[in-house]
Amino acid sequence: MDDDKKISGKNNVVLCVISIVFLCILLFPLFWIVVTSLKTEKEIFQVPPTIFPHVLNSKSYLAQVENGDFNMFRSFGNSLMISVGAMIISVILSVPASYGIAKYRFKGKNTILLSFLVTQMLPVSVLLTPMFIMFKGMHLYNTPFSAMIADATIGIPFSVLILKNYFASIPKELEEAAYIDGCNRFTGFIRVLIPIAKPGVMVCAIFSFLYGWGDLAYGMTFILDQQKRPITAGIFNFMGQYGTKWSYLTAFAVVTIIPVALIFIFMQKYIISGMTSGAVKG
């Protein structure tokens, strides 16, 4: 406690300067993407490069909303539907699973936890072929449901590992008090335990949504029709055989990043509290 109070004066200034330098380094790629999207193709390749565009190029953003094979609004809606669907599946399956792992003792419990960790380590390319065969047999191929389920396989292991600590840290006396008040095991879980673990559930929902929003491999592999594909698949519309339209590509990246940025801006309270509260057991 005393060491924390001594951070003042010159030390405080030095730490602030270092933090600002690191922040500028981390934000520079994002700044460069935005600036590049506002430049003409000629100015992008100018040597030495310009920090700010001499002439604002709005055509790169107007091209995002033009009608054609790629429609920004339709693809935006497809990504939103897939991301929300993956988020719902992840939350519905991971919440009771993490509760069962945290509160019950059974054989193979450690093996199940290890399997969740292993699934987080597997590259996407390893899972594409078996998932393709499964979705083909289930008649889900070339439908948004295939991408939802595939994206949920990323969010579920993460959610279970996070929520397990939440439910394990809830005192058993709270459950017993709920049973005394007339709740059974299911209603006690819904009315008492889930509200207590709300920060963790929110974190899992947010990250499951972001996994679905940023996915490219599953959306490209399991959905063939351009009209059904998510917004991330639109990146290939600006990469031609003889070159890449960098101003269009960076403008597309800026538009795609906007929902993610808004989520972190408005939901950072839940993200920070959710990641820290579940980290300490007891």
Entry keywords:
282 residues; mainly alpha; 71% helix; 0% strand; globular
List strands and helices in order, with pairings.
Blueprint: H1 2-5, H2 10-37, H3 41-44, H4 59-62, H5 72-103, H6 109-121, H7 124-137, H8 144-169, H9 172-180, H10 185-196, H11 198-214, H12 217-222, H13 246-277
Number of helices: 13
Strand content: under 5%
Helix % is: over 70%
Order of helices and strands: HHHHHHHHHHHHH
Low-confidence runs (pLDDT<50, min 5 residues)? Answer: none
How many E strands? 0
| Integer-rounded radius of gyration | 23 Å
| Main pleated sheet | none
Shape type? globular
Q: Kindly report how far apart the N and C termini lie.
A: 22 Å
Mean pLDDT across every amino acid position = 82
| Class computed from helices, strands and strand pairing | mainly alpha
